[in-house]
Design goal:
This protein is of the alpha/beta class and 201 residues long. The protein has helices spanning 11-22, 39-46, 62-72, 87-96, 108-119, 127-135, 143-153, 158-165, 169-182, 188-197, and strands at 2-7, 27-33, 50-54, 77-82, 100-103, 124-125. It holds the Pfam family GerE.
Length: 201
């Protein structure tokens, strides 16, 4: 039996996925979630074979959290579902070891097949997503600069970013100034737009 955790914020979509998986005799959904903050605690509690996660539910530091989870529970394979593969995020996810990436508009049988493949130790990466990820130029920013910019993109203020990353507000401002310079951006908002358009956020 393949134990699956499903994290999808849209209730109707989550219900459709649950109904689909319920038809499979070798797949059991051990948890279904609609809130980002519940993902990691639920994975630790249920220890599923495969965690199917909606990409929109990943917070800016969500991939970092998943990476730390790999060290803690290497037996859980992760399948990311997305409507809009952001190349930079896809590349980062592939680099940290996410086992699967699939478009949400893929045929239902492809999701079921992907879960079985992941449970068997194989990787499942949508060809178009992979191609887009590797054709996108690498960002001229460091990992820390990208992290600060991602948090800025969510509307976090400098003091909040500083607290979250255990930095001083002055250091955060210095990172943002460097980001603006590297991207030839006029403002922080402009920097976020440039990085988003390039697929780095």
């Amino acid at each position: 039996m393949i134990n699956v955790l499903l994290a999808e914020e849209r209730e109707m979509t989550r219900g459709a996925f649950l109904a689909l998986l319920a038809q499979e005799s070798d797949i059991k959904t051990v948890a279904d979630l609609g809130r980002s903050k519940d993902i990691l605690p639920a994975i630790r509690l249920h220890r599923p074979d495969v965690a199917v996660i909606d990409m929109d539910m990943l917070t800016p530091d969500g991939l970092s959290s998943i990476q730390s989870l790999f060290d803690e529970l290497p037996e859980t394979r992760t399948l990311i579902l997305t409507n809009h593969g952001r190349p930079g995020v896809v590349r980062q996810a592939l680099n940290i070891g996410v086992a699967g990436f699939l478009h949400k508009d893929s045929p239902p049988e492809k999701l079921v097949s992907a879960i079985r493949d992941l449970a068997a130790g194989r990787r499942v990466i949508d060809a178009d997503l992979a191609m887009s990820a590797w054709q996108t130029p690498l960002p001229p920013l460091t990992d820390r600069e990208l992290e600060v910019l991602r948090l800025t993109a969510t509307g976090e203020a400098v003091p909040a970013i500083a607290t979250r990353l255990h930095l001083s507000p002055g250091t955060v401002r210095n990172y943002l100034t460097t980001v603006e310079s590297k991207l030839n951006a006029r403002t922080r908002v402009d920097a976020v737009r440039i990085a988003t358009d390039a697929g780095w956020l």
